[in-house]
Write a structure and sequence with these properties.
The chain is an alpha/beta fold. The chain is built from 23 helices and 16 strands. The radius of gyration is 25 Å and the shape is globular. The relative contact order is 0.13.
Length: 598
C-alpha cells in the first residue's frame, strides 16, 4: 500500500547536517550525539523542521559512511563521553578533560584519530563499571540478536588479526567454522561483550536524541545506504546475500565521464527473498529507533544496479559494467516488490534518492507508492525541448528539493565553475566516438581562461547549434547523426548561468562569482518550489553570510569515485553555540517563514 504519514500533507524545510562537520564547545574534535541535540536547537531557531543525517554506521578505515562495516552498528566516533555514566574516581574525568583540551576545534577537517582515543576511554569505563547485568542491556541484546553477536564477533576477530579484512583471515574464521568460532568466543568473551556494550551505549544516546527532537518538533531523517562494505560483518556472516564477484557502481554520465566504481558487492536478491527479506526488515526495524523518515540511498539500484566484474582494472572505474538484471522487463516488478516490503515493514516515511540515469519504471513506481524523490536544482530542467531550468511551480510535488547534495559541489562552486560547462573527459570521449580530433576543437569551442576543475566553458560566440557544428566538423565531414550526443551536451549547458540569472529575477549584468544576493535568490526560489520538502546542506546555507573563503570547490563533503582525506571530513567554521546566536540563523529563518514552510 502507498504510504500516507500525516506530514506528507505539509510543506516543510530542513537541513542536511553531517554530524562529523559540526561541533560544540564541549566536543572532542568531531560532532557527537550530544551535539546533535544542539543541532536540533539550531534547527528550531532557523525555522527548519527536518534534520537529515548521513549514515551513522560504523565506518571502516576509509571513514566513508556509505562503505560501512555493518548496516546496523553505530560508529563509536559519535558517542558522547560526557553523557556516559562515569565510574567513581577522578582518573577518567581527568583523561577526558585532557583529551578535550588537546583536540583543536577550529581545524578545517576532522582528525579521525579521535575514534581510537574514544575507544580507549570506552574500554576503561567498561572494565571499571560496565553495567552488563542491567535489564536494559539484556533487552538490547535480545532485541538485536539478528545482527549484534555476528558484529561483535566480527569486530573481535578484526582486532585479533590486525584489522585485516575478513577474506584475509585464516580459512577456519573466513569460512565461519563452528568449532573455531566457539573456541574464539570463549577465549575472547570480554572483548565481544565490550563491542555489544559500546553499541548499547550508542543506542541509548541516539534514542535520547530522537526523544529530544520529538519535544522540539523536529523530524530526524536517516540515511539507509543501499550497499555495505565488502569487508563488513554483514557480508562475512551472510555471504549468500551478496554477489562477491561484482562491484557496484554507476554508468558514465555527463557529470562523471568514466562512471563510478564503489567497490561494495551487489546483492543476491534471490537469496534475500528466499529468507523472507529478513535482512532488509531488520535494518528498518533498527533504524526506526532513531528516525522519523529515512532516505533510501540509490533507490534505482533496487530496480537494477550497475555491476562491474571485480577483476576489471580500477582505472576503468564504471566504464565496463552492465545492469543487473540485464532484462529490462524485470526491473519494475523487482524494484516494486522490494519497496513494498519496506513500506510494510516500517512506520518511517520512506524517501528516495533517485538521482542519475533513472529508468521510467523507477519514477513511476515511486509516484504510485507515494515515495518522495529528489529534485536537485541544477538538474531540474527541461532537457529535451527548451533545455531550460524548470520554474519552482513545475517541480514534482512529491519530492525533496535541494541546491546540492553530499556528493556534489556546493551551490556557489557549481555556479562559479560548472554552470555553462561540460565535463572535459566526457567531451573528449564523445569526440573520439564520433571520430573528431578533440585536441584541435578544444581551443575552437571552449574558453580555456574560464575553464577549471576539469570543466570546459563554452566560448560566448558559440551561440547556436550551427556554430557548434562548424567547430566540430568545419567541412561537414562528420554526419549530424554522429554528433547528436555532443549537440545534446551543448544544448543543455550553453548559457546556463544566463538562463538561471533571468529566472531568479536578478538585475544588472550576470555576475560570474556567487555572492550573498545570488545565493539568497536561489535559496528563496528553491524554498518556493512545489516540492513537499526542501532540504539544503548546511554548507550552502552558511554561504549566506560569507563563512567560507577562497575557491568554493574546496568546501565539499565528498568527491565520488575518489579516495582522499578530504572526503567525509569537512567541518564548519564555528561552533553550534555560536551558530545559534549568529545573524545568519535569523536570515535563514526569514527565508523559511517567507516561503510558508513553517
Amino acid at each position: 500500500m502507498p504510504q500516507s504519514p500525516s506530514f506528507l500533507s505539509r510543506k516543510l524545510s530542513g537541513v542536511l547536517i553531517s554530524l562529523f562537520s559540526v561541533y560544540s564547545k564541549n566536543s572532542f574534535g568531531v560532532g557527537d550525539l550530544s551535539d546533535l541535540n544542539k543541532a536540533i536547537d539550531w534547527a528550531r531557531e532557523s525555522g527548519n523542521s527536518i534534520i537529515q543525517l548521513l549514515p551513522m554506521n560504523d565506518m571502516g578505515g576509509l571513514f566513508c559512511p556509505y562503505d560501512a562495516l555493518s548496516a546496523f552498528a553505530l560508529d563509536p566516533l559519535y558517542i558522547s563521553l560526557i553523557d556516559l555514566g562515569l565510574p567513581k574516581g577522578k582518573s577518567l574525568k581527568r583523561q577526558i578533560e585532557t583529551l578535550r583540551k588537546t583536540l583543536s576545534l577550529d581545524k578545517q577537517f576532522v582528525d579521525y584519530s579521535i575514534k581510537k582515543e574514544k575507544l580507549r576511554i570506552l574500554r576503561e569505563i567498561f572494565l571499571l563499571d560496565s553495567m552488563t547485568d542491567t535489564e536494559s542491556f539484556s533487552r538490547f541484546r535480545s532485541d538485536n540478536v539478528y545482527w549484534l553477536l555476528d558484529y561483535a564477533l566480527f569486530k573481535a576477530l578484526k582486532s585479533k588479526f590486525g584489522e585485516s579484512a575478513w577474506y584475509d583471515w585464516p580459512l577456519e574464521f573466513r569460512n565461519r567454522d563452528k568449532q573455531a568460532l566457539e573456541e574464539f568466543r570463549q577465549a575472547n568473551a570480554q572483548e565481544i561483550m565490550f563491542q555489544k556494550w559500546a553499541q548499547w551505549q550508542l543506542f541509548e544516546q541516539f534514542k535520547g536524541v530522537k526523544d529530544y527532537a520529538k519535544v522540539k518538533k523536529v523530524f530526524l531523517n536517516g540515511d539507509l545506504p543501499i550497499l555495505v562494505s565488502r569487508d563488513s560483518s554483514d557480508v562475512w556472516s551472510h555471504p549468500e546475500f551478496f554477489k562477491l564477484e561484482f562491484s557496484a557502481g554507476a554508468p558514465p554520465d555527463m557529470y562523471c565521464a568514466k562512471g563510478q566504481r564503489w567497490g561494495m558487492p551487489t546483492y543476491n536478491w534471490a537469496s534475500i527473498a528466499d529468507d523472507g527479506y529478513q535482512y532488509l526488515k531488520e535494518k528498518l526495524k533498527f533504524a526506526e529507533n532513531f528516525y522519523d523518515m529515512i532516505r533510501i540511498d540509490h533507490v534505482v539500484g533496487l530496480f537494477r544496479i550497475w555491476s562491474i566484474p571485480d577483476q576489471e582494472p580500477l582505472e576503468n572505474q564504471g566504464l565496463n559494467g552492465a545492469f543487473d538484471s540485464a532484462n529490462e522487463a524485470e526491473w519494475e516488478a523487482h524494484g516494486r516488490k522490494i519497496l513494498e516490503v519496506m513500506l510494510s515493514s516500517t512506520k518511517m516515511l520512506l524517501c528516495a534518492e533517485d538521482l542519475g540515469v533513472i529508468p521510467k519504471v523507477c519514477t513511476e513506481t515511486l509516484e504510485k507508492l507515494k515515495i518522495p524523490g529528489n529534485d536537485v536544482q541544477r538538474w531540474v530542467k527541461d532537457w529535451n525541448i527548451k533545455h531550460d531550468f524548470l520554474k519552482p511551480q513545475d517541480y514534482r510535488k512529491l519530492s525533496i528539493t535541494m541546491l546540492s547534495t553530499h556528493d556534489t559541489t556546493n551551490w556557489p562552486a557549481w555556479w562559479e565553475n560548472e554552470a555553462g560547462t561540460v565535463d572535459e573527459d566526457l567531451f573528449r570521449r564523445k569526440c573520439a566516438e564520433a571520430g573528431i580530433d578533440f585536441s584541435y576543437i578544444k581551443a575552437v569551442l571552449f574558453d580555456i581562461s574560464r575553464s577549471c576543475h576539469g570543466r570546459l566553458r563554452w566560448k560566448d560566440e558559440i551561440d547556436s547549434v550551427e556554430k557548434l557544428m562548424q567547430g566540430l566538423s568545419p567541412k561537414g565531414a562528420v554526419p549530424k547523426d554522429r554528433l547528436h550526443l555532443l549537440i545534446g551536451l551543448y544544448e543543455n549547458t550553453y548559457g546556463e548561468k544566463e538562463k538561471l540569472w533571468k529566472q531568479l529575477g536578478l538585475v544588472g549584468p550576470m555576475r560570474e562569482q556567487c555572492d550573498k544576493e545570488i545565493l539568497r535568490a536561489v535559496l528563496q526560489t528553491n524554498l518556493q518550489a512545489s516540492s513537499l520538502f526542501c532540504i539544503n546542506t548546511l554548507i550552502d546555507l552558511l554561504y549566506l553570510d560569507g563563512f567560507w573563503q577562497g575557491d568554493a570547490y574546496q568546501y565539499r563533503i565528498n568527491t565520488p569515485g575518489t579516495i582522499s582525506e578530504r572526503n567525509w571530513s569537512l567541518k564548519i567554521p564555528l561552533s553550534l553555540e555560536e551558530l545559534i546566536k549568529h545573524p545568519v540563523t535569523k536570515q535563514i529563518r526569514k527565508l523559511v517563514v517567507d516561503s510558508g514552510r513553517i
